[in-house]
Write a structure and sequence with these properties.
Blueprint (H helix, E strand, L loop, with lengths): L1 H22 L12 H34 L2 E2 L2 H9 L5 E6 L4 H16 L5 E6 L4 H6 L7 E6 L2 E7 L4 H11 L5 H7 L8 E6 L2 E6 L13 E3 L5 E3 L8 E5 L6 H17 L4 E6 L3 H11 L5 E4 L5 H5 L3 E2 L8 E5 L5 E6 L9 H11 L3
Parallel strand pairs: 1-3, 2-3, 10-11, 11-12
Antiparallel strand pairs: 2-4, 4-5, 6-7, 7-13, 8-9, 10-14, 14-15
Helix pairs in contact: 1-2, 2-4
């Protein structure tokens, strides 16, 4: 729609210039006819204003159709079934029928729904129709858009945003492959399922490669809280302790990560401690902020479970990592490994720290 503004600008300038030339106001009091140049200037401004209003009407008209076409959540029960219990991520827009900006945003949201058809839901809620739902989401202005994943809000935006803002957040939670894809994409790198680990006493099968002491540490890509990528090889030059945990939102994983955070402060710059889970980067950032964890590097393996597969700690029946600790020396070789046999138990902290200090020559 930018072309409307350009046409308005130039058309106004031309018409204003003609009026200035033909009018030939001798007193100079009329801005349009004082001279061709002032006429062109004021005509351009007036033309731009008219074009802007025209553009707003065109956008609003198309946006109204797009907004009307978005599926609507009209009850608490529908919100629970369509959003909280959805197997797909959900973009939820709070709007009001009279909101111009809601209509302006609607085509962007509709396009995202088409782009990720079958993988993302895009729905709307009339903030006036469900005031209790709006209050729970602390909606003070519309449009307000929330990104839900696995029944939890992990992103929030107020006002009109560019499509790329939403797309970046959606891409971050879209699995690129997964355990099954990883197992079939590189069959020569995938070992047979391994037993020997339990979760609350129940046997768990692990899939992926066997990484043992003396092997080169596989280089994998993980995602940090700011959605940037980090690789295992980025930490070469210092001992690296990798703590793999099922989820930071569980008590044992929380206790372990806090403990390693304390250890990291004691090690200072002697080594790096990296905590890896399949939690979403947004959830990891929120948890670290709430628990004051800032000395360890926290990264997510949620995209393709590449870490879980290449390090052999992917739980076959869950999109979770088994509890494990690896220590990698400054040259990139694995010098210590512990896969905790019962996932509800903590690892051997003393042995892991001793391996770190030995790898650093201490």
């Amino acid at each position: 729609m930018t072309w409307i503004l350009i046409v308005g600008l130039f058309a106004g300038a031309v018409i204003g210039g003609i009026i200035g030339y033909v009018g030939k106001c001798r007193s100079g009091t009329c801005p349009f006819t004082a001279s061709p140049w002032t006429g062109a200037l004021w005509g351009a401004l007036l033309g731009l204003g008219i074009a802007f209003l025209t553009r707003s009407q065109v956008v609003s008209s198309g946006g109204a159709e797009a907004l009307a076409a978005l599926p609507s959540i009209e009850s608490e029960e529908a919100f629970r079934s369509e959003v909280l219990e959805s197997e797909q991520p959900v973009l939820l827009e709070f709007y009001t029928p009279t909101c111009i900006y809601c209509r302006q945003l609607a085509p962007t949201l509709a396009a995202l729904g088409q782009q990720y058809a079958g993988r993302l839901k895009v729905v709307k809620v009339n903030a006036n129709q469900l005031p209790d739902l709006s209050r729970r989401h602390q909606v003070s202005g519309v449009p307000a858009v929330f990104l839900y994943h696995q029944g939890k809000p992990i992103g929030r935006w107020v006002g009109v945003q560019e499509a790329g803002v939403y797309r970046t957040a959606v891409e971050a939670i879209m699995p690129q492959g997964g355990p099954e894809a990883a197992a079939t994409a590189n069959p020569e790198e995938t070992a047979m399922p391994k037993q020997g680990v339990t979760m609350k006493g129940n046997p768990v099968t692990l899939t992926g490669n066997d990484v043992n002491v003396g092997d080169a540490a596989p280089d994998v890509k993980l995602v940090k809280a700011d959605l940037s990528e980090v690789k295992i090889s980025d930490f070469r030059g210092k001992p690296l302790l990798i703590s793999a945990v099922p989820s930071l939102d569980t008590s044992v994983c929380a206790k372990e990560t806090k403990h390693f955070n304390d250890i990291a402060s004691e090690l200072h710059d002697e080594a790096v401690i990296l905590t890896v889970s399949t939690d979403l980067p947004f959830a990891q950032e929120r948890w670290c902020g709430a628990n004051g964890v800032e000395n360890v590097v926290v990264a997510s393996d949620h995209r393709g479970c590449e870490f879980g597969q290449k390090y052999g700690v992917q739980m076959q029946d869950f999109r979770l990592l088994a509890r494990a600790v690896f220590v990698v020396d400054p040259q990139g070789k694995v010098v210590y490994k512990q896969i905790v046999e019962e996932t509800s138990h903590e690892p051997d902290y003393d042995a892991a720290v001793a391996a770190v200090r030995q790898a650093g020559g201490k």
